[in-house]
Write a structure and sequence with these properties.
heterodimer, A: about 475 residues, alpha+beta, PmbA/TldD fold, 2 domains, eight-stranded mixed beta sheet, five-stranded mixed beta barrel, 10 helices, 23 strands, B: about 450 residues, six-stranded antiparallel beta sheet, five-stranded mixed barrel, 19 strands, about 20% helix
Chain lengths: ~475, ~450
């Protein structure tokens, strides 16, 4: 029995049990991760999971059931159980759910991969992490860590409308970090970011990152931060580096434009959104420099795929154009409710989880400036980069971020280092103050985006470049 | 022998046959989870799964490796053993391997309520129906969840234990056009969760939070309801009580020092009746009631075998399934002891969650009642300064009375400092078990009356 056969059996059983629509995903995922600390391997893990999840629509209610068994009997039981769960939803019903019309798709897709990351020897990978963290520890990095993570996922999707899609997505990445212990405080520096950089790529990404070349600098900066002056408190001009900009986009734009949040479907947990659909197409989100796209087709970016998890082909779409809010992340059911004509952003983190609206690659189009030009154009300000903490309210308006490192900007030059830099603001006011944007774009990968109940971990991509903002409150402390 | 223990034992036998010198440990679990989710007062997501998960860790020729799988056929178990042995032989040396847990019995096989184990989609929908109806026309959202976890551990040193646990949880909000109110509760027993009580409480809070005004940022005396205290305790657990963080001097915790108010006692308890959790950890070490803070004096962190070896002590049975790169030892059943078992808690008029909260409010001259915390993150690990926001209902308290709904605050506050000697003005008379959004953690907390909380901004900026 093939994976497609199992998915088909599950869909058939759901329809036979009364569903008016059903789809099923068989997913087989292999995972590998390794971490090292101070020259010793800390954790090596290899995992594998395989199973089937089936989604059934009965009346206004969805039902979902998942099993780790691809036999015909188990698949059919899963399909009929999903339909039975959907029927129980009718005890607390709502309006009849509709799905955006979609043509059946029969297709295959694979992400690009030059060096299969699972084919690289564990000992070679381990030697790299041990060597880097050992050198960092000897250089004064009290807790020096390195890690990589690999996901190799194959999916087989079947829908009752006739879609039949298989995909093979390989993701990998990693990075280094050191924490130095001072008198009553700690400081951390990381490369290329705290959790590392990730993409839908092979081991060539780790080779390009060349983590060994950055260990010494990271330790030096962390130690220097222990005695650096505190980030001053007040309002100032703020330049954010690209890595921090990626998280700024993720938290204050990406989540805010999720249509399920806007519709109230996540109200109790992840929250809602400050955005009102009545203002789609007219609301000023940011300055004219702000152009945000939703693009799951970016080669190598972490949020890339060929088809989302309800079979919609990947397509590029505007979310913010010249500062005006024009698009959302949506699925077939949420788009139908909202009266929109596109889905394409529904994903699940595994076969045992219900697909839901998730970010794909949500990022800024490049601007006309460079980081050097921004610094040169700033008489008095602060630059911050590399996220250390993040917090934002349930409407995605009020945020406060902390960064690993800051620098004073005086008279057009980057000056002394600042420790514990933080900034806070309100989303649209902040984005409307963006007056310079760099062209130096990197598609950052975020492998730990949480959402949903039961919880799901999403992999998202965020093209981002350094940018400058005016009149930002910085230096918030406890 | 349970099915999970049989699987764990099969894997140990396979390892013995292929690599007799290997030290091997296996955790096998079957997680049967169902969650009925509602929003806009209708059920919109309704899911269930039954997922086995087996984890194998090996130490062989001075090297350590681990593998896991959701596949449990004989062929799949053999493949797991094959690839984990192969991976271990290729792994770098592990000089700090702490060895396997010795054979020892567990204190309990866990609390299982057959009614939770047998709960149907209709049962969960009935809870939702009751919550929605009790909200009296307000828009509602949330979930009801039932869970049965059957688990077993075996290792090549002869340890062999098993257990099972149930949990039922409900967490929901009611909403007016401008305000939200929340009610949530978890238990091992179906009879403890009443959708109507929770729906009515959430609705009362939402209505009482309507018309909120903004109060200037600053230091305020506060009453934190258990829903907010749960966040405080979870951050202490994750960033302070982990033996690894203490070993690495990333934690504020200083054993033997009076770091907390004398009224604060914190234990980890996975062995009392009615607890949601196993009485053994993922290394097979049996759990006992573990003191962490006693009358304000820090007893010490919790440990797994590796952090204990580094600290020169023994494991407290708190190895977690989390990545060891982040957190090692987790006090997943931590409890802040309540002030005493007084009269049974009851629902009350007004926005206070219950009579225990109302009793604390009565002792406040001017302060803020906080229902819930949201999106709290570490600003400074060593002092555990956190930033986050309030959510789901905030009120001004004047002369022991709740007088005015307030708009949400952003806060920037050291959690240990908020509980420091002299900072705790009152503790609720009852601790309640609350559902935790991540992993299988079950915390029990009372309300707290604290002398000061540092609100650093309004939700509008």
């Amino acid at each position: 029995m093939t994976e497609f056969d199992a998915a088909t059996a599950a869909v058939e059983a759901a329809i036979a049990a009364g569903a008016r629509y059903a789809d099923a995903r068989v997913m087989h995922r292999r995972l590998e991760s390794m971490s090292a600390r101070n020259g010793e391997i800390e954790d090596v893990d290899q995992g594998e999971d395989l199973g089937l999840g089936v989604r059934a629509l009965v009346g206004s209610g969805w039902g979902f059931y998942a099993v780790a068994d691809l036999s015909d009997a188990a698949a059919r039981m899963a399909g009929s159980t999903a339909a039975a769960i959907a029927k129980a939803s009718a005890q607390v019903p709502g309006p009849e759910a509709e799905l955006l019309r979609a043509e059946p798709v029969v297709a295959s897709w694979s992400s690009d991969c030059v060096v299969d990351p699972l084919s690289v020897g564990l000992s070679d990978k381990g030697d790299l992490l041990v060597s880097v963290t050992g050198d960092m520890y000897k250089a004064g990095g009290d807790q020096s860590t390195a890690l990589y993570q690999i996901w190799d996922t194959r999916k087989w999707f079947v829908s009752s409308e006739g879609s039949r899609i298989d995909q093979h997505i390989r993701e990998c990445g990693g990075g280094i970090s050191t924490t130095v212990i001072g008198d009553g405080e700690t400081q951390r520096r990381s490369y290329p970011s705290y959790r590392g950089q990730y993409g839908t790529r092979g081991w060539e990404l780790m080779n390009e990152l060349d983590i060994a070349a950055h260990g010494g600098r990271v330790v030096d900066e962390a130690r220097a931060l222990l005695t650096a002056p505190l980030c001053p408190a007040g309002e100032t001009t703020l330049i954010l580096g690209g890595e921090q900009m990626a998280l700024q986009i993720h938290e204050s734009v990406g989540h805010a434009i999720e249509l399920d949040r806007i519709l109230g479907w996540e109200a109790a947990y992840a929250g809602t959104s400050w955005l009102d659909l009545a203002q789609l197409g007219s609301l000023r989100y940011g300055s004219d420099l702000m152009n945000i796209t939703i693009d799951p087709r970016i080669p190598g970016a972490l949020g890339s795929f060929g088809f989302d998890d309800e079979g919609t082909p990947a397509a590029k779409r505007d979310a913010v154009r010249n500062g005006i809010w024009v698009g959302v992340l949506s699925g077939r059911d949420s788009a139908a409710v909202a009266g929109l004509n596109y889905g394409g952003s529904v994903r699940s983190d595994g076969w045992a989880r219900l697909p839901m609206v998730r970010m794909t690659n949500v990022g800024l189009e490049p601007g006309p400036h460079t980081l050097d030009e921004m610094v040169a154009a700033t008489d008095d300000g602060i630059m911050m980069d590399f996220n250390r903490s993040w917090s934002i309210d349930d409407k995605r308006l009020n945020f406060q971020f902390g960064c690993e490192i800051g620098w004073e900007i005086k008279n057009g030059k980057r000056g002394r280092m600042l420790r514990n830099p933080t900034y806070t603001g309100i989303g649209p006011k902040f984005w409307q103050s963006m007056d310079m944007l760099s062209s130096e774009t990197v598609a950052w990968g975020t492998p730990n985006c949480g959402k949903g109940q039961p919880g799901q971990v999403g992999h998202t991509g965020h093209p981002a470049a350094p940018a400058r903002f005016t009149n930002v409150r910085v230096g918030v402390r406890g | 022998m349970t099915e999970m223990l049989d699987i764990a034992s099969q894997i140990i036998d396979l390892v013995r046959a292929q690599a007799p010198a290997a030290e091997a440990e296996v955790l096998a679990e079957l997680d049967t989870l169902a969650l009925t989710r509602f929003a806009n007062s209708m059920i919109h997501q309704n899911v269930a799964e039954s997922t086995p998960h087996v984890s194998l860790r090996l130490h062989l020729d001075g090297r350590t490796g681990a593998g896991s799988s959701t596949l449990t056929s004989p062929e799949a178990l053999a493949a797991l053993v094959d690839r984990t042995i192969a991976a271990t032989r290729l792994s770098p040396a592990d000089p700090t391997w702490p060895g396997l847990a010795p054979a020892a019995p567990v204190l309990t096989s866990g609390t299982v309520d057959p009614a939770v184990a047998a709960a149907t989609p209709e049962d969960r929908a009935a809870l939702v129906r009751a919550f929605v109806d009790a909200a009296g026309g307000l828009t509602t959202a949330g979930y009801s969840r039932t869970r049965l976890v059957e688990g077993a551990f075996a290792n090549s040193a002869g340890q062999s234990v098993s257990g099972a646990t149930t949990e039922i949880a409900m967490d929901g909000i009611a909403r007016t056009a401008s305000s939200d109110g929340v009610a949530r509760l978890a238990s091992a027993y179906l009879k403890d969760i009443d959708g109507a009580v929770l729906g009515a409480r959430a609705a009362t809070k939402a209505r009482a939070a309507d018309g909120a005004i903004e109060l200037p940022p600053g230091q305020y005396e506060v009453v934190l309801e258990p829903t907010a205290v749960s966040d405080v305790l979870s951050c202490l657990v994750m960033f302070g009580f982990d033996g690894k963080a203490v070993n690495e001097k990333r934690s504020f915790l200083a054993p033997g020092e009076a770091q907390f108010d004398p009224s604060i006692t914190i234990v980890d308890d996975a062995v009392s009746a009615g607890i949601c959790g196993f009485a053994f950890d993922s290394e097979g070490t049996p759990k006992a009631r573990t003191p962490i803070v006693t009358k304000g004096v820090t007893d010490g962190p919790v440990h797994d075998r590796r952090t204990a070896a580094i600290a020169g002590t023994t494991s407290t049975g708190h190895a977690s399934n989390e990545s060891r790169g982040w957190v090692d030892a987790v006090a997943g059943n931590a409890v802040i002891e309540p002030a005493g078992a007084g009269a049974p808690i009851t629902e009350v008029d007004g926005p206070a969650a219950d009579s225990a909260v109302a009793a604390l409010v009565a002792g406040v001259t001017r302060g803020v009642l906080v229902t819930d915390h949201w999106y709290t993150r570490v600003l400074d690990p060593r002092t555990l300064v956190m930033t986050g926001l309030t959510r789901n209902g905030v009120w001004l308290i004047e002369n022991g009375q709740i007088t005015q709904p307030l708009r949400n605050f952003r806060f920037t506050q050291s959690y240990p400092q908020a509980l420091a000697p002299g900072a705790v003005l009152g503790i609720g008379s009852h601790a309640v078990t609350l559902p935790y959004p991540y992993g299988r953690i079950s915390l029990r907390v009372p309300a707290l009356h604290l002398a000061s909380w540092n609100f650093t901004g309004g939700a509008s900026g």
